[in-house]
């Protein structure tokens, strides 16, 4: 494999990392039956919010995203913050919790492929987006919807080489 420009299936790697995190840390039996488990379809991709993180890998920037309907993200944040489903958490706390999720998943991505890339991977800082900004990103990258501990989430990946930046 050419370590200067390896061919890495980023969407598969982030899906594997997310699935491992959900299975190992967010056990499905922790999720209350009242949680929002709506299915994400093409028609409601416009209603997604979520967190993004930029990886720098040799001569490429890879942007990863963890997206879902806001009600699903609120349920996930309640679980991460160890509060009951009835507790109303501040929106900023939800955003912070979801930023931690993409940070952990990105760390899993790094651990899976770091040795395949000359110079390794550098993780960026997570940030939260919603609305039109999410819709524009989705159109520019690859997306895959997965079952994340019983909740539908959409993973996003966009890779750009520094020649194209």
Automatic annotation (TrEMBL):
Residues 64-136 form the Chemotaxis phosphatase CheX-like domain. Keywords: Chemotaxis. Pfam families: CheX. The keyword Hydrolase does not apply. The keyword Membrane does not apply. Transmembrane segments: none annotated. One of its GO terms (biological process) is chemotaxis. This is Chemotaxis phosphatase CheX-like domain-containing protein.
